[in-house]
Description:
- This is Tyrosine-protein phosphatase domain-containing protein.
- It is a single chain.
- By secondary structure, the protein is mainly alpha-helical.
- It has 2 domains: about 60 residues, no CATH class; about 50 residues.
- Helices cover about 70% and strands about 0% of the residues.
- The protein is rod-shaped.
Amino acid sequence: LNAFLDSHVITESRVCVACDTDGLTISGLIVARYLSLSTRCTHEDAIKAVKISHESFFPLPYAQGDFLNAEFEEEEADQFELQAPSSDSKKNFDRCMLQNCIRVYGNSL
């Protein structure tokens, strides 16, 4: 894939008329399709990634921001899932807090 992407960047510095709306040449669209099939990203995200990696293409101002925001949100969701406490840990925390409150405030009653 890297060799194919490198040859795309080197040999095709023009924009193909057939895919002018995407701003990618045919090989760029093929790379994007391969990326979307081999990863879990959508075809639109793969096109944005290929556009960003293509040195001769100047992406739309929002393309790179949208792509990076989507990546950040996905990573943030993954991190939240890792940090989300389970119901058992919540119960243990509640039990410890209750015992601490009884120990601290029980003597004053």
